[in-house]
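Lab notebook: predicted structure, single chain.

Context: the supervisor wants predicted structures on file for every construct in the current expression panel, including those that have not yet been purified. This is the next one on the list. No modifications to the sequence; it matches the entry in the shared construct table.
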Amino acid sequence: MVFLLLILALGSAGQDDNQAFRAWQLLSYSGQIRARGTYRETESTGESKETEAYLTGLFQLHTQSYFIHPNFMILNFGGTYNPETTRSSYIGIPDYAEKTNSQGLDISALFFRKKPFNLTLSANFNDAIVNVENVSRIRSKGKTLGATFNYGNKILPFTISYIKQTSDQTTLGDNRNFNLNQGVFQATANKSFTSHDATNFSFVQTQNTSNQSDPAFPAPLHIVNNINTLNLTNALYFDRKKNYTLTSSISNTDQSGTYLYQRLFGQEYLTIKLPKRFTFFTTYTWGQTHQDEVFMTNQDLQCVLGHQLFESLTSRLIFEHRQNDQSTYTEQRDRGGLDLKYVKKIPKGKLTLNYVYYLEQQAVTTPSILLTVLRDEYVLTDGQITLLKNEYVNLRSIVVKDATGAILYQPGIDYIIVDKTPYTEIVREPGGMIANNATVYIDYTAMKPGLYKYNSNINNLYADVFLFKNIFNGYYRLFTQDFNTQNEVENLVLNTYVRQIVGARLNLNYLRAGVEYEQNRSNLLPYYGMSYSLYAQKMYHRFFFSCNADWRDMQMTNEDSRREDIAVSFKVAYTIYRNLKVDADYMYRSMTGRGLDMAVQTARLEITATMNKLYFSVGSDMYLSRNYVTTMNYKGTYVQLTRSF
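Prediction complete. Output recorded below exactly as produced.
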């Protein structure tokens, strides 16, 4: 049997492979052996002083080899073993040498790498402590098993894969635990019937079982979700240069278990390249959603006619129609607009102007009701104000999830809700389970005012000047929105604003700096303030220095409150002699404002001596954290010996 597999797998490929047939052949290896001794002491609010001394070891090995022949099986092996005399389980102390607190095994095997059909098997086992933004520490244990089969034939190339994953995460110090058991089966196929088309089909089946134990829950939360998703996409090209294309896609999602959710989605996209440097494209999208006895139908239509005049002026005419229908609610929005972009070379630089205008009409024909919003998508970014789209939200109804619905984020730990009646703001909590710039999905209910119809005017202006090969950039931004033709408005608060931003950036080889003034004259959320940023990095002989600083200071005028976000980090490295190096790091992060007060400082000093591939390090680190409830003060020292090979 093995002989037949070899005949199939190798064929004539051996002509371009010089490796001989062997039962097993090692191709490469690398690794590390390390021993570390650490002493820690910590003090926190309401608790006595704790001290701890322990010894850890680490052995890492990474190899690549083949069995029988490289065209038959390539094996990658990575292993980490981390014996410790003790395990720290008290309140979140950051660990700058996180790799000393990890152990795992990573194996993958690729069969028949040069044949149209190939198979990849993989397994990963890990146990690690992860430092999250120097605010919290999470112990993560997991296991992943996977298999992928790929067949690249000329008739119907396809790929089939299955991944089985289990993980257990515990936040040290506050007893938050998240356990996930997930299985994902995926099949994809691609087919072109002619040279003028391409079709892709995919099927994904996901089975999630999760348990969350959290101080916010009276009992552990158990969630079971089974999700089946079908996707079919077809592209038609009506000419060889693909100037005329029609792309169609349809997908269906069916979720069962703890949360029932169904969605049918279809889209048509047409692109036409016209004479005289004109282009036209249109998109039509239709979707139907069903969750918790709520039925929604959405329709979106967008048409854009564009023109390129020489290389300097780009213009677009835009029309959009959007309609949202629920069983007791209908909303329609139509808007037309103009987008102009002008680029001009000027002495020593370039000028860019961009103007966008929209005339929008929005209407609701249903009396005031309790509106149910499902899977409203938001991106949470530090330093930016994110408001929920609807007014008068029931704060107790807000549920924030990840894309799969398996993770329920918790208020006060992962995010903060700020009441800005009639609107609601959501802020990401650093150190929680929501990463910066992460996408979350929010369900909530809101009182939707009814029987309104109005027109709004939206103006956006962008002006940039780039000088001296983009070393200097000055810019101005203007965003305005006002309303007219208010035929009917019942209990609706319209957001009228004039938002202006003036800023400058300097970009040198080793230095980037920026300053910005922002003013938002709004009847809902007025504010003004300054933002500063600095990034410097310099290598001079044996001295390395880097600095990264951001400061955003805003005055919320309608609240008579100040919002401040500061993040500063320094790194200094100096090689005293060729084999003696000093490293120092410092980080400060604070967020203050209405409903938010958090500050963290971390510092580390390390001296490393090198002899051949033997490294000896001695260091000290510090951690100070405070919030509304607790204050944490940590100090530690360590000695470490490392041998790489």
